[in-house]
Amino acid sequence: MARRSRQHAAATRARILASAGQLVRTRGAHAVTLDDVARAIGMTRGAVYGHFRSRAELLGALLADAEADIAARLDCAAPDTPARLDRVLAALLEGDGLARHASLLSALLQHKCTDACELCPLRARICCQAERLRERLAAWLPDPLHAHLLMAHLWGLLGAQSLQLAPDRLSHWAAPLARLYADGAPMRDTP
Question: What is the CATH number of the domain that holds 160?
């Protein structure tokens, strides 16, 4: 019986996270509450609070999923194998995986703090992970100083996609970005 309860709890938690993720993508993280999540999946507020004690805890779980997804995408180009920038970018941009996290990351990075802010630790986690990503990208670039610019390009693509200003699939941008950064000079003067 205990196994079934744990399995049921894990399935319920997954349903809550899936619902919360969908709401964050459609409304934005700033407009999603635990009550909204409960209503969206036909659960009681108490059932959702049984899994997540606060909105910050729920957003933290969504952030953990995003961190795991990004890490898995980067692991396709492990340091012990010869990694090519185009392969790394293709893994990062494959499907809509990263785009589904863009609204959450953006909202957490832009939140307005109060005296008792529960979201500041989540913002700090994102900043720390962004620095790690920059370091990993720098290792694959001919000029490591361009890692910040590449991250800005990636963030811009994700933002444009989340605003529906870019195509649904970003994977076709991997090869052009890799070519742009491959020679170590992504900035070209044009008349």
Answer: 1.10.357
Last residue of some domain: 28, 53, 78?
53
Please tell me whether residue 142 adopts helix, strand or coil conformation: coil
pLDDT of residue 1: 43
Q: How far apart are CA 183 and CA 148, in angstroms?
A: 16
* 98 and 156 part of one domain: yes
Asked if residue 71 and residue 10 are part of one domain, the reply reads no
**DSSP code string of 62-85:** HHHHHHHHHHHHHHTT-TTS---H
The dihedral over CA atoms of 44, 46, 48, 51, expressed in degrees to the nearest 10, equals -150
- The counts of H helices and E strands in the chain are 9, 0
d(CA 67, CA 59): 12
Instruction: In whole angstroms, give the CA distance from residue 81 to residue 137.
Output: 15
Which residue, chain included where needed, has tokens 């694959």? Answer: 140
Statement to judge: residues 29 and 89 lie in one domain: no
Q: What's the average pLDDT block by block, 10 residues per block, for the chain (191 residues)? A: 72 94 87 92 92 93 92 70 72 78 86 77 91 88 88 86 72 85 63 52
State which of 10, 37, 53 marks the end of a domain.
53
